[in-house]
């Protein structure tokens, strides 16, 4: 081999390995992966955190303006002096078997799609493959508290082989380099991933963005997606619902959901509109300020899960899992959704799409009567506790529901085995 070719090879290798601040190789079949973020990047991020200039608030704080100055300052201090990424990285690596692969395009997106994913096979021969899709501002870390329960249940309960991919732009799945990879295409890529792993029929689970992804999958791959379990069954009230609400005649569940939706419009809709419109404009600041980006993440997490006590370690680690590769790709996913009109008009679109599969809804205080308006619900469970990030907040309840939904003799079990 000539010197010139060697140099070119070396240069190509460097070009790939220096692009992202973590070690990764994306081949054409699944290969084991360990999180290994460059120490120089971790230290640079800590220094940036220590140099954060904190915003000045009004004398009287309005919670809709953003998180409290005290809370963001506490994150800055903790990140500067106490936060230990290497410990978080080790815990994830010790607990979650991870892999990388490449999918050769999906649907209308013809470019290769490098993916990072968690894959734990149950030791049970009768285990059912389960694809778990995370949301925003989450990542594959959401599977951490449910993976043991899914894959290693008591012997008389249903077991699952668990596959939890990172959406492109999240965790360690690199963001798409080209326009056109939205949640539908991500779902098409995840289906190809399941086929690569030898699973040609399976159950899907998701909340938040994951719930949108798995609905697309159920529609695009009805032969494989035999059942669907979600903790976000987004349902907008119709005119009669609102009339009864205005007459103070709603049930407690209906009133709760209507109030949640109104609060969402007041607090979190603005964030989404930034992502839908100028994600890059936003990303310059967020990419350069880890604490500034954390303030964005914690606002969403605390609004979504107000009764859950997020620790500062959790908040920073969740932030890091979007920050390490840069927060642009994950934010831009909302633009892809908006361009396909799938989030802004999704209620009317999805109401007309009846799911080909038996569907399950497990949702926090969701009105039971409303759920079947969007599909064939064969299992429904509603809790008076927990929030938007169910797999993190109420993992045991979520796993128990999946087992119950998929136990022998149920409609979902039959749909899987036929
Ligand atoms: C935010 O700060 C307030 C006031 O110091 C404190 O009561 C609250 O516990 C903090 N919240 C979090 C999540 O740290
Ligand atoms: C490709 O895009 C067209 C136009 O938006 C759409 O009708 C079609 O369903 C898409 N195909 C796939 C496989 O996603
Ligand atoms: C499995 O056994 C436990 C303990 O006896 C019981 O509570 C549970 O209902 C059983 N599950 C099924 C699916 O029969
Ligand atoms: C309130 O609900 C009850 C029971 O469903 C119904 O009989 C009554 O007409 C409702 N009142 C209004 C104002 O909608």
Automatic annotation (TrEMBL):
A Gene Ontology biological process in which this protein takes part is: epoxide metabolic process
Give the signal peptide range. 1-17
Q: Where is the active site?
A: 208 (nucleophile), 334 (proton donor), 388 (proton acceptor)
Matching entries from InterPro entries are given as: AB_hydrolase_fold, Epox_hydrolase-like, Epoxide_hydro_N, Epoxide_hydrolase
GO terms, molecular function: epoxide hydrolase activity
Q: Has UniProt tagged this entry with the keyword Signal?
A: yes
Give the family per the record. Answer: Belongs to the peptidase S33 family.
Q: What is the name of the protein in this document? A: Epoxide hydrolase N-terminal domain-containing protein
What organism is listed for this UniProt entry?
Hypocrea virens (strain Gv29-8 / FGSC 10586)
């Amino acid at each position: 081999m000539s010197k010139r070719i060697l140099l070119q090879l070396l240069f190509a290798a460097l070009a790939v390995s220096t692009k992202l601040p973590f070690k990764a190789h994306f081949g054409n079949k699944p290969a084991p992966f360990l999180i290994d973020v460059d120490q120089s990047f971790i230290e640079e991020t800590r220094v940036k955190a220590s140099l954060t200039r904190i915003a000045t608030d009004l004398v009287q704080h309005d919670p809709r303006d953003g998180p409290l100055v005290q809370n963001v300052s506490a994150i800055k201090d903790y990140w500067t002096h106490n936060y230990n990424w290497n410990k978080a990285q080790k815990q994830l690596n010790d607990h979650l078997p991870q892999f990388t692969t490449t999918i050769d395009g999906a649907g209308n997106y013809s470019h290769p799609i490098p993916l990072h994913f968690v894959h734990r096979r149950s030791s049970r021969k009768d285990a059912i493959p389960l694809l778990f899709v995370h949301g925003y501002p989450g990542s594959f870390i959401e599977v951490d508290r449910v993976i043991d329960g899914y894959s290693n249940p008591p012997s008389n309960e249903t077991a699952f082989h668990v596959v939890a991919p990172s959406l492109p732009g999240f965790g360690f799945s690199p963001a798409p380099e080209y326009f056109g990879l939205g949640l539908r295409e991500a779902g098409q890529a995840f289906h190809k991933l399941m086929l690569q792993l030898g699973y040609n029929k399976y159950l899907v689970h998701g909340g938040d963005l994951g719930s949108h992804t798995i609905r697309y999958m159920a529609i695009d791959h009805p032969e494989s997606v035999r059942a669907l379990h979600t903790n976000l069954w987004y349902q907008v009230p119709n005119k009669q619902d609102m009339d009864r609400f205005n007459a103070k005649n709603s049930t407690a569940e209906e009133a709760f959901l209507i109030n949640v939706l109104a609060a969402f419009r007041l607090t979190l809709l603005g964030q989404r509109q930034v992502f839908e419109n100028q994600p890059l404009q936003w990303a310059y600041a967020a990419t350069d300020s880890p604490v500034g980006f954390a303030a964005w993440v914690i606002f969403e997490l605390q609004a979504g899960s107000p009764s859950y006590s997020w620790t500062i370690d959790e908040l920073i680690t969740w932030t890091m899992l979007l920050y390490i590769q840069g927060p642009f790709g994950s934010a831009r996913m909302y633009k892809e959704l908006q361009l396909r009109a799938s989030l802004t008009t999704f209620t009317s679109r999805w109401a007309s799409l009846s799911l080909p599969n038996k569907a399950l809804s497990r949702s926090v205080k969701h009105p039971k009567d409303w759920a079947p308006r969007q599909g064939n619900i064969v299992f429904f469970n509603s809790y008076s506790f927990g929030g938007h990030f169910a797999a993190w907040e109420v993992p045991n309840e979520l796993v128990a529901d999946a087992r119950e939904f998929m136990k022998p003799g149920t409609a979902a079990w039959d749909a899987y085995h036929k």
